[in-house]
Amino acid sequence: MTTSARHRGSASRDGRAQRRPAVGHAPGGPRRGRSVAILVASVCAVLLVVGIGLVAVFRAATAGPGANPSGPAGRPAAGTGVGGSVKPHRAASSTAALPKLSAAQLAGQRVIYSYPGLTPPVSLLRWIRAGEVGGVIFFSQNIASEAQIASVVAELKRANASARNPLHKYPLLLMTDQEGGVVRRLPGQPVLSEKEIGQAAAAGAAARAAGTGAGENLRGVGMNVNLAPVLDVYRFPGDFDDQFQRSYSSNPRVVSRLGANFVKAQQAAGVAATVKHFPGLGAATATQNTDEGPVTLNVPVKDLRSIDEYPYRAAIAAGVKLVMVSWAIYPALDPKLPAGLSPRIVGGELRQRLGFTGVTITDALEADALRPFGTFGNRARMAAAAGMDLILCSAQKASEGEQARIALESGYRGGTLGQSAFRAADQRVLALKAGLGR
Questions:
Q1: Does the structure show a pLDDT above 80 at 176?
Q2: Which of 48, 90, 106, 291 is most buried, by the most CB atoms less than 10 A from its CB?
Q3: Residue ranges of the domains in the chain?
Q4: Is the distance from CB of 222 to CB of 186 less than 8 angstroms?
Q5: What are phi and psi of 47, to 5 degrees?
Q6: Distance (Å, rounded) from C-alpha 229 to C-alpha 203?
């Protein structure tokens, strides 16, 4: 997420036709020759049938489960968006049939809720038991101590395990922003900011240690997703990212290497990583904050692709599970819509050009950058139509998530959100959850 006073926290809290055999005349006369020829042809025909059968058996034995002879493994089916995770051999998990779900449940699985204070509201627990919640995000205001938040997480998991929930075998996505430095919701690791890691003598090792620390810290209280690391490539000292030390470097290759190190280490610790804010907020000035108002970044396509998007290639190759898309407008890619509402950017740049097949997640739905786009419900519908899988409702009001869910459900029922694409998004979310459950 972008950062604001509400979201920062503090270091202490916060995928040959076979040739036919030739038959000639055999010696010994025409009649005998014909007989021999017939015999030879019959034998060859039998051998041909047997050979074809053996080839079929061999292919079936070696193809493995989920093999798709119609196209390369791990590639999205035409016209259905994309499915699966980054590694092609996992693509089958996202194309598996969905459980039987109501429209409300299909919609709810795409919404991340938040709430105020230290105790989850009764309404949120009720929606979780009904299978209408994809996950929950926590902020420093929700956390008094590690023991307290671990107890809350356990309560949410019990609600998710309800027999009423057809998705009780899938874990909730329980997440926070544990970037390091000033942007931490839990005490402890990672203590170093991204800038400090980038300036360290052994930066690669420091990034790995931060990823491991973040994963172990979150997993220790029962969380399974971290909205980190930031892959923004900052431009000038003191600009939007640099003022909070949230960028590893102004060199895209350094950001690429260290970000991938963090991703791999954290996910090895059992917590999914989220890289952000695609296609990049590194060019934002100190006052350009999408939490506080609309932001337009007039960066040429060449620079966007060679600088800002560059680190995402390594993160995707490293198997990152989620990508958060920013709310800034990039006129070189789409002159009218913020990135997270833009099919050109979500589908074109991230999915097609970079080949990301994992889960996309919006930045905060309540961000003031989205004021021109109406209600929470309208914003949620536009984001889903653009190709965003998860809608992040982080105003710390459960009602915000409810409005997003109702709008998505209405769009699904009414057909304004294509049902095939909608269900494909749910499949990606459930594939993510299934992997975290293991």
A1: yes
A2: 106
A3: 88-437
A4: no
A5: -60, -35
A6: 15
